[in-house]
Amino acid sequence: MTDIQPVQALPSASPAAGRRITVILNLRAGSGEKPALRQAIEEALAPAGDRLAIVDVAPPARLAALCDRHASEAATCGGMLVAVGGDGTINAVASACLRHGVAMGVIPAGTFNYFARQLGIPQDAAEAARLLLAPALRRVTVAKVNEQVFLNNASFGLYSRIIREREQDKARFGRSRIVAVLSAVATLLAGYRPFAVKIASARHEQVRRTAMVFVCHNELQLARLELDAVQCARERRLAVLLLRPVTRFGAAKLLWHGATRRLNQNESLETFCADAFSAATRKRRIDVVVDGEIVRLATPLDFRILPDALTVAVPHDGLPA
After folding, report:
1. What range defines the domain where residue 128 resides?
2. Residue 146 confidence (pLDDT)
3. Which among 43, 109, 112, 152 counts the fewest CB atoms within 10 Å?
4. Are 142 and 149 in contact (CB under 8 A)?
5. Is residue 1's pLDDT more than 50?
6. Is the distance from CB of 308 to CB of 139 less than 8 angstroms?
7. Which residues does the UniProt record annotate as the domain DAGKc (predicted)?
8. How far is the C-alpha of 113 from the C-alpha of 221, rounded, in Å?
9. Region 202-206: what's the mean pLDDT?
10. What is the pTM of this model?
């Protein structure tokens, strides 16, 4: 990728070396890779000595409170809070860091790792950990829906049902990518009820019947989907995708275009860019998928972009400022 805009170098007077490093390690229970990953991180960060603390998250329900407490402590000593886990963990750490004005580090341990990859952070855990000893610090653009931070995307409608069904199927059949894919296909082809949504921004207001509203500001993810809306992210704006109501045949066609990366050819998608907008439905509270996690939020939903809001540790030879 080239010309990636959501990153801006901080002045060189913002030292990253020598600060306390607190690692929030949150891998799913029973994961065979957890001991090996923890060891790789400990060895890579050994030069930090007593400035290093690794915090295991158990149970996951404590994640938000745990991140908030450690971010508050990091704020008092100029420390850095590091996320090791999937999108939900990275989001929780980012939210806490944003709240307390703390620098954030990322050691990727998810499936797609769009946030880390966008910033040029190594996908190897040991390499990603080593860069935290003396990183460059950069300001990164994030977004919010109501007061919920999202680093990649937020959506409601059909996608929240897909995520809910997927988690149920994974609990029954195991956590694998094939289970996730087959679950999504089954949900799409099972049919769904479209709903009315009122979209309002500073420039215009419209009412649409839709199956899903998908909001994204990660350039890498939009580019992977082969969507023209990638230009929104390049301009540091929100890319908004509305899925028009479709038949089962239309759903199958959408799946095919998604699998073959030809979503731009699908006539059921409507897209536009926005800096901020609200989305109102008839329901007072709805499920919203925020970076892969379902949260219950009050409507109308308030979406907005926050340029250069979050400080993240990245490689010195990573993205251009």
Report:
1. 17-134
2. 98
3. 43
4. yes
5. no
6. yes
7. 16-148
8. 10
9. 87
10. 0.86
User: Within 13 A of 159's CA, how many CA atoms are on the CB side?
Assistant: 20
Alpha-carbon Rg for the chain, nearest whole angstrom, is: 20
Q: Which of 9-13, 92-96, 180-184, 213-217 has the lowest mean pLDDT?
A: 9-13
Of 134, 166, 184, which residue constitutes the final position of a domain?
A: 134
Side-chain-side CA neighbours of residue 267 (13 Å): 3
What average pLDDT does the segment 232-245 reach? Answer: 93
- 189 and 296 inside one domain: yes
Determine what percent of the chain is predicted with pLDDT higher than 90: 58
Q: What pLDDT score does 249 carry?
A: 63
Task: Please tell me whether the peptide bond between 245 and the residue prior to it is cis, using omega within 30 degrees of 0.
Answer: no
Q: How far apart, in whole angstroms, are the C-alpha atoms of residue 82 and residue 54?
A: 9
Query: Does the pLDDT value for residue 105 go beyond 50?
Result: yes
Same domain for 107 and 205: no
Q: Number of folded domains in the chain?
A: 2
* Domain annotation covers residue 7: no
Distance CA 294, CA 286 (A): 10
Both 62 and 154 in one domain: the answer is no
**Domain final residue pick, 134, 159, 182:** 134
